[in-house]
Amino acid sequence: MARHLPHQNRQWLSLPNISTGWEIRRLVLIWGGFALALVFTYITVFSLIYWFASLLLQEVNRSLAVFTTTLLTLLLLRLLYVGTQQVVDRLFFPDTANFKEKIDAICHRLTEIDNRERLKQFLDQQLPAWLQVEEVYLQPQPRLETVKTITLPLEMGTRSLGFLTIGRKHSGRSFGYSEQVALKQLQEQVSLVLSGIQLAEAREAAEKTDQLKLNFLTNISHELRTPLNTVINSTGLVADGVLGEITETQAEYLNRAVEGSEYLMNLLNDILDITKIETGQLTLQPEVMSLPEVIKETLPLVNNPLQKKAVRLTVELEDNLPPVMADRLRVRQILLNLLSNAIKFTQEGSIRVRAWLRGNTVWVSIKDTGIGIPQESLPLVFEDYRQLVHRQQLQFDRRRHLGTGLGLSITRALVELHGGKIWVESEGVPGRGSTFTFTLPLSTLKPENGSKVTANGKPASSVRVS
Description:
The chain is of the alpha+beta class. It has helices at residues 21-56, 62-75, 77-92, 99-110, 116-131, 177-239, 248-278, 291-298, 303-307, 328-344, 395-400, 407-417, and strands at residues 133-139, 149-156, 159-169, 287-289, 310-317, 324-326, 348-358, 361-368, 422-426, 434-441, 461-465. Helix 1 (21-56) runs antiparallel to helix 2 (62-75) and helix 6 (177-239) packs antiparallel against helix 7 (248-278). 21% of the residues are buried.
């Protein structure tokens, strides 16, 4: 981005910088007028001092009067020069008079502009009148007509935003050195405004793209769910023998078709959820609820995969757990994702669900005795589309644990939307498994039914689910 010339405004009397012929005439008039004003001021001040001294003293010290007059004139030197310059500009160079003040006013008005059309309109209509030029152009490429015009590159860092061309003046004069220096301030301000507008446009375009993507996925999900449900239900009826006896081989292949269809259904749900999370359109419907009740509602959903393994599921709930403020459906989804993940990677042993109160939050942990997670992979567990597989697993294990890679990522997002935290602990050793823990904030309200929320009305218990 263009920068101001160093120390340009720090000089007591700026040295003449001439870049055009008309500036020579202007400089001659200014310094000629300044010399006349200096002589007139010196004579006037000396006369006044001499007159007042004659009234107060019988004898006037001329040396002292000359010294005092010289000192006062030197103090007025800067004021005399600026005044002479303003008079000359107003009389002979009106397009240069108060040029910097006009630039300051324009830059102040530019801060109110927040879209490209208003910026173009302001540059096209206001600047020519204020700067007394014919036209102002804001274009992506520099203009070739450079006679008595000035083209300012608009940049933000290393990014080019376009070019601002100003010219020519109504008087036919080109821009002088001091005017070019003042225009650098305009160059910076227009660059800042245009950069902000471009960022806003990019953000708006991204939001529209996200909305289109969400609408597309929602429509596709809706269109695919109906036939998938039909396939799952119809195939499931045939596999269960409701429509007639089938062989074991036929039932096996039919069950594979059901599992594949259910996998596609879960994939659609996960993609839709992660898209809503990424676009910030996933909203919660929090309510005062009992966490033990939600845990009990979720457990039957994992009975089917548990029956196929030698895995014991236990639940330990601290007595008199207070209610939490959360979205019941999403908390159930969090629990189901973590339980399904634990069951998937645990072939034998146990899975323990535990909930207890700590401070002003309720902690929930799900500990399994599965294959565990290598230490180097722990930071990657909650990333999108990650499938972490222990290096000791066989190839058929990898296929068996195939998933979308979105479950834990969605789980983390849902926990954080509730204002909680989630983390995982694992030694990476088969048989010792992993422990996923998340927290939920307590509710400051009482349950709607006014009853106390307890685990089972019993002390912290261990419930075995077969």
